[in-house]
Design goal:
This protein is an alpha/beta fold. The protein is built from eleven helices and 18 strands. It has two domains: 202 residues, Quinone Oxidoreductase, Chain A, domain 1, CATH 3.90.180; 140 residues, Rossmann fold. The model has no long low-confidence stretch (mean pLDDT 96).
Length: 372
Amino acid sequence: MKSRGAVLRQAPGKFEIVDLVVDEPRQNEIRVRMVASGLCHSDDHMATGDLPVAVYPVCGGHEGAGIVESVGPNTSGFEPGDKVIFSFLPACGKCRWCSTGHQNLCDLGANVLVGSRWDDPTSFRLQLEDGTPVAQALGISTFSEYTTVAVDSAIKVPADTPLEKACLLGCAVGTGWGSAVNTGKVQPGDTVLILGVGGIGANAVQGAVHAGAARVIVVDPVAFKRDTALSLGATHAVATVEEAIEIAKSFTNGQGADVAIVTVGVITGDHIAQAFAGIRKQGTVVVTALGNAAAVGIPVPILELILYEKKIKGSLFGSSSPRADIPKLLDLYQAGYLKLDELITTEYPLDDINQGYDDMRAGTNIRGVIRF
């Protein structure tokens, strides 16, 4: 099948709209007509080279939803017309991590930056018209009008699901919400710091609020983002980390926040150190943001780490199990507890994808969405 998609031919680079050929689905695969895709910062990290991929060209996009167009032979559980939300991390259901409730760490994830079929690093589901293989971002490539994916990456959802909103559940919402609820284990009455309010940080705010945090203090230099955080339930929004830490200490007898979540656009070790300075004894820093993959080092006081029993925890997809958590978050949205509509600042046609990323870097979007 022919399709149009946004590819990177190199990094650093910009997305280019090209004609693609999409494979027929094999066993345990489905082909999906995309409805919407979020413009996640992680794809921009691929474009800048912060997040290196193994094969170019690569068709971007890993946060999306669509309608099943065809189903591979001997593939159960899906039919043409089904609505699906993609999980940017596959879940096989069989490995050690899936079987212990850590689907975000599924062993199939070892291949997501290769962009091939899981079982064959030389087999690709997308090609250019001249036959050149095209890697799929995180195995799914939601920046293509049609895409063929493994069923390990697809979550079937009810027929009345508004995919143009629910597409965000495939990355941003679960990553941010889960950073607070699953990784940070925010408790009722806690004081929470959140550094950075983009697509991930906005949902960390929602997760902290849902978990019962008494104070949610966000930091962002952009006034629009601070205002958005307040509308999502944050109690305080300031421009600098220093201001946020003082507010946290004012409510905790000088101790600091219980949990600090780092969701800045491009992370460095200094951001983690700032969050570390803002938490109490036995407090937790949750590191969710991405930056240069080659960067090493977090400048934190070693004795403070030891004697105060502070914790620094990485968070991948908010420590979510997507087969359980995506339907749960969809239920929260449909019940009116989780805000999705308010997260989408601007919708773009596929041809304007680079404008969408320019807007993201300019700080004018919480989440941009491609509508097909």
